[in-house]
Structures are given as C-alpha cells and as structure tokens.
Amino acid sequence: NAGVTQTPKFRVLKTGQSMTLLCAQDMNHEYMYWYRQDPGMGLRLIHYSVGEGTTAKGEVPDGYNVSRLKKQNFLLGLESAAPSQTSVYFCASSYGLTGGYTFGSGTRLTVV
Amino acid sequence: RKEVEQDPGPFNVPEGATVAFNCTYSNSASQSFFWYRQDCRKEPKLLMSVYSSGNEDGRFTAQLNRASQYISLLIRDSKLSDSATYLCVVIARGDSNYQLIWGAGTKLIIKP
User: Fold this and answer.
1) Which of A9, A25, A111, B38 has the fewest CB atoms within 10 Å, counting from its CB?
2) pLDDT of B7-22, one tens digit each?
3) Chain A: residue nearest B4 by CA?
4) Chain A to chain B, count of Cβ pairs less than 8 Å apart?
C-alpha cells in the first residue's frame, strides 16, 4: 500500500520553463490537495479537488493549474516558472474534507 | 495577526520532561482541528485530531479552548524520537468552501 506518491522528488527549472508534478493515491480518497511549504510559513493550499473531474482554488492558486482526470491522480502544472515558485510542494489526500490528511513525500523545486 | 499562530521555538527540553505548546486561531467559526508532526525534510504526518472534550493518545494530550480560541498539545515523558516540528491545522467553513489554515509549526528538540 503506497499511500500517496509524488514525482519527481527534486527538480531545477529555469525561469519561464513549464513542468507538471504528479500525485497518485491508492486509498480511494475523494479529496486531494496541493500545498506549498516555505521556510517560516505554514503549508499553503494551492488547489484542491473534491472528486474526479473537479478542482477548486485554494489560498495561493496564481501561476498554477491542476487537473483531476482520474480519481487517483492529481496533477499540478506550472506553465511559466518563476523564482517565487521555489518551494517544497506536497500533495495530500483525505477521505473527507475535514478528515486527516495523508501526504506524499514532497517535491523540492528550485526555479533559477 | 495571522489566522493561525504557533510559537516557532525551538523548545529545548530534556528527555523525560513534559512539554506543552499552543496554537491560536482567529476564526471563531473554526470547526476541526488537528496536530501533525513533521520531521526534518519529510512530509507532515497526522499525530492526532483535537476533540471538543479533549483527547489523549498515549503520552500525547490534545485540548481545545474555544473561548480563548486555541488548541494545545501536551507531551509527557518526552522521548528523543519526539524531536520534530509540530504543526496545527484549523479548518473553518467559509461562505462557499472550507478554509484549511496551517500554522508554521513549533520546533521541539528533546535532549538526552
């Protein structure tokens, strides 16, 4: 039982490049989330999904897009990376919106 | 004032001691509360939910004080393995969605 799997674990991008972060969960959770974590700040919600085919904006959605074409997968896209997007990105899933979350191991992204 | 605040620490505590820290929140409509622990360069992991009546899980006790708008985490007989950053998350129902706000975490260091 893998739980939540994120790929890649590390990535360096040049300003203006694009990339997609992949998140997969095998717990049949309806809810999935993308967070970013920066030093001295709490986890900030980028986008989330309450089910297959649905997405919603979180606290800091600008510069990111997401898709949930399959229940088990939640993709986060950066269309034109900026240095301000240097961060650690965590994907999470949960059974309910107010339930405990299971996190992936994170993606460390550096934009230069 | 931040919506969810935690003392960043670090709390340096000798092994075997009892330590407690709080997480204050500003939204009086907050409904659900959780404590997570995060080891260095790892993902957050659910430690425990916080119930209105307070709850205990082994050496850990979580309490909610709605009047003063904070939750607390108490660790008894601390172990070296308790060294981590402890994050709180507060969930409130908004007009059209839920708000999930994370504290920036309290760093705990248990010393032999």
Assistant:
1) A9
2) 999 999 999 999 999 9
3) A42
4) 42
